[in-house]
Input
Amino acid sequence: MIIHIASDHAALSLKLEIIRFLKDKGIEVVDHGPEASCSVDYPDYAEKLCRELLNDNSCRGILLCGSGLGMSIAANRYRGIRAALCHDVTLARLSREHNDSNVLVLGGRMTGTDLALEIVNVWLETKFSEIDRHSRRIQKLDKIK
Ligand code: RB5
Output
């Protein structure tokens, strides 16, 4: 599975740590920027990543900004994107089991590197439960106008 990743300036250093972690695990990573720490607007980077994921639903994505809030608000505007802002490993696990989250969102100013890498690991390893009630609820999300 390819992981797409993007951030804004506020989470650039955490993004680089996560890219290194993923590559060390042998996972292919596509970085949608930014490359430098000058100030950028998170909706632009959320858009790049979400459009890429919607073209290939075998991929998943990781978005990061300072709080994680802006990226999660932006990403969830794209139908078919289920972005989960996770502050702990329980949320990461539940977001996969119950919500089939296809984007993990982290706050670079909220979550330290060690915890962020644990969250990423759990999110990657956890499968969607495929239980009927969860599938039905996800299908309803895509009908929201
Ligand atoms: C940038 O200062 C900050 O507002 C942004 O990274 C994010 O936290 C927005 O939700």
Strands lie at 3-7, 29-31, 60-65, 83-85, 103-107.
